[in-house]
């Protein structure tokens, strides 16, 4: 496990930001998903030692529970949601400075700064002041700073925040590369469902400081046995919405969503299309989307 949380509660005065969460975050790329204010950033800050939980226990990797914050930060890279840079520093100066602060010798910090700035695509911009960077470039330099000391685990807090579609895809491509090619464990904190679907193998879903769902994406979005996507020919053939054993709904872009009503089998679909004078071109079991999982978890207030 990358992270273990056991009955963790985090308070800010009278406000409860995280309410008794128990969760296991495995190695690989894991989405920490929830709406703004769900408690995602509070969990990351507590794991880094920046805030202290009022109850519960936390563990990162194989570090002891009482590990000092500097021990934790030596193994973890953190990309905060908000910008944070010293005025006047170039990208290279900022990243190498943070490398020095993480314990690297000056020559090693310089070498690593060049390497990670090249990795994130800022090699040609490394000597420009960070204050003059675009939003996408500032996100990349924060990612480079999180990587400079070569951590095992990355905590990325809203890494696509403020990016346009091309910049968002570029950032997600970097996250995929870090996880799948370079072997980093990544905890991606976000409220954007599509970002989790694009790069993550598992997800932990929070709502108002509580855990409402967790698990591998493949399991949470597993194929449903009674729902299918149907494509027919001719494409403009109209089928009734209700047929014996079937419920059909037209889908945007063509085709139908089909739900089998027990004890009907997929044979009933072929029979219905044939009776209407058409041919089945595709009949595919429907998977739940992450949006289905998320909305279902919020509606039930518990694990999906």
Give an overview of the whole structure.
This protein is an alpha/beta fold. It has two domains: 1-61 and 152-222 and 288-304, P-loop containing nucleotide triphosphate hydrolases (Rossmann fold); 224-287, Alpha-Beta Plaits. The protein has helices at 40-47, 69-75, 91-101, 106-119, 135-147, 165-181, 193-199, 217-220, 267-275, 290-300, and strands at residues 3-12, 15-25, 29-34, 55-60, 76-79, 153-157, 185-190, 202-207, 210-216, 223-233, 242-243, 246-250, 256-260, 279-287. A hairpin with a 2-residue loop joins β1 (3-12) and β2. The longest helix has 17 residues, at 165-181. The model has no long low-confidence stretch (mean pLDDT 90).
Number of strands: 14
Rg result: 24 Å
What helical percentage do the residues reach?
A: 25-40%
> Could you give the distance between the termini?
21 Å
Question: How do the helices and strands follow one another from N- to C-terminus?
Answer: EEEHEHEHHHEHEHEEHEEEEHEH
Major sheet, described briefly?
Answer: 6 strands, mixed
Number of domains: 2
Assign the CATH architecture of the largest domain. Answer: 3-Layer(aba) Sandwich
